[in-house]
């Protein structure tokens, strides 16, 4: 199957491009902090016979921090143009951490919501705090307006707003790149055309943008979007809004979101709680985390195979060591507010 060649419009968005052209977007387009390493692109695709599927190694994107947020930030940060960044997430947010690393933590003002304690979430939160991210805790969704106001006042100047997960009109184009690159992987013979691709769905931008990129590139692959939250972000109207943002007026064959399978059967106890049927956190050489990738891979391993399958590894697996990463700060009153429940791994 051939991936269609596509161009870009006057603002640099895809009218379509090959995966190789899309790869050039992964380099952060603003000057990164001195500790940032050159990104690796395109990301590898690997066969995992022991698991019975293929794996797209988004966990190895960028440097020094990988995962799906690197592609989004390649579009978000140029638009921010040096402004302070006001963004949102849960206490252990990968998005907030990645933004701090690539934009510079002194620019990041983060409004965070509580989530269940895990060692992984505690490490992310402790690292954000050690890097110098200004954190404003909201005890619930009802507390978001007040926490956001405090963050804006603290910034003291207009901020560039970035929604949870970086899923805005800019960031979602990074996920479109991912879909286009998968089409290029298939066209180049690096993997067979998958029947299903499994990806975690939090704020929705990666899963929906992936669907758009696959359709623009000519692959009819189903997207198995494994939901990790019950938030209104996952409503059908919002997913359709994200699809329109991803497509930017470009046409695809079939109805909007045809072949996009929203899966709520892996929610379990809710966001941040490890799922009892989730894949092990060390699985066939893949380093997973408990909220997103353990669920998505668990779904892929549990479903009855129906053709070739691909798992998108969206979490960072690069070691958090070196000059870019100070030691995470330990628990204190702020982390006790944001990470709830027993202190265990």
Write a structural description.
The protein is α/β, with parallel strands linked by helices and 345 residues long. The chain has two domains: 195 residues, Rossmann fold (3-Layer(aba) Sandwich), CATH 3.40.50.1100; 107 residues, Rossmann fold, CATH 3.40.50. 31% of the residues lie in helices and 16% in strands. It is built from ten helices and 14 strands. The radius of gyration is 19 Å and the shape is globular. The protein starts with 18 loop residues before the first helix and ends in a 5-residue tail after the last strand. The N terminus is likely disordered.
What are the SSEs and their pairings?
Layout lengths: L18 H5 L21 E4 L4 E4 L12 H12 L4 E6 L3 H10 L4 E6 L1 E2 L2 H13 L2 E4 L6 H12 L4 E3 L9 H16 L8 E6 L3 H12 L5 E6 L8 H12 L12 E4 L18 E2 L2 E2 L5 H10 L6 E4 L20 H6 E2 L5
Parallel strand pairs: 2-13, 3-4, 3-7, 4-6, 5-14, 8-9, 8-13, 9-10
Antiparallel strand pairs: 1-2, 11-12
Q: What's the domain count?
A: 2
Report strand order across the widest sheet.
1-2-13-8-9-10
CATH topology of the largest domain: Rossmann fold
Biggest sheet: strands, sense, closure? 6 strands, mixed
Number of strands: 14
Question: What percent of residues are in strands?
Answer: 15-25%
Q: What global shape is seen?
A: globular
Detail the poorly predicted runs.
Answer: 1-20, 22-39
- Return the string of H and E elements: HEEHEHEEHEHEHEHEHEEEHEHE
């Amino acid at each position: 199957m051939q991936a269609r060649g596509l161009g870009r419009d006057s603002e640099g968005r895809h009218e379509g491009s090959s995966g190789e052209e899309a790869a050039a977007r992964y380099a952060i387009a603003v000057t990164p902090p001195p500790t940032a390493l050159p990104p690796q692109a395109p990301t590898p695709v690997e066969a995992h016979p022991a698991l019975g599927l293929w794996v797209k190694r988004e966990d190895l994107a960028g440097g020094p921090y990988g995962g799906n947020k690197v592609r989004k930030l390649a579009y978000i940060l140029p638009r921010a143009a040096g402004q302070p960044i006001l963004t949102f997430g849960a206490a252990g947010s990968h998005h907030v951490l990645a933004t701090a690393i690539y934009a510079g933590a002194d620019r990041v003002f983060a409004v965070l919501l509580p989530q269940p304690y895990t060692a992984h979430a505690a490490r992310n939160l402790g690292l954000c705090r050690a890097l110098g991210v200004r954190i404003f805790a909201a005890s619930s969704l009802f507390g978001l307006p007040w926490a956001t106001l405090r963050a804006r006042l603290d910034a003291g100047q207009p901020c560039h707003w970035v929604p949870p997960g970086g899923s805005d009109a800019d960031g979602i184009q990074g996920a479109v790149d991912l879909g286009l690159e998968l089409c290029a992987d298939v066209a180049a013979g690096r993997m067979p055309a998958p029947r299903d691709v499994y990806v975690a769905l939090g704020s929705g931008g990666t899963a929906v943008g992936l669907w758009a990129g696959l359709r623009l590139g000519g692959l009819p692959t189903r997207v198995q979007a494994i939901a990790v939250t019950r938030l209104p972000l996952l409503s059908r109207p919002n997913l359709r809004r994200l699809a329109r943002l991803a497509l930017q007026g470009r046409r695809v064959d079939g109805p909007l979101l045809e072949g996009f399978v929203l899966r709520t059967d892996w929610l379990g106890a809710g966001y941040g709680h490890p799922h009892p049927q989730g894949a092990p956190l060390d699985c066939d050489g893949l380093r997973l985390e408990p909220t997103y990738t353990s669920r998505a891979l668990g779904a892929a391993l549990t479903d009855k195979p129906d053709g070739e399958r691909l798992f998108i590894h969206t979490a960072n697996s690069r070691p958090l060591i070196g000059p870019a990463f100070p030691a995470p700060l330990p628990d204190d009153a702020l982390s006790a507010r944001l990470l709830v429940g027993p202190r265990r791994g």
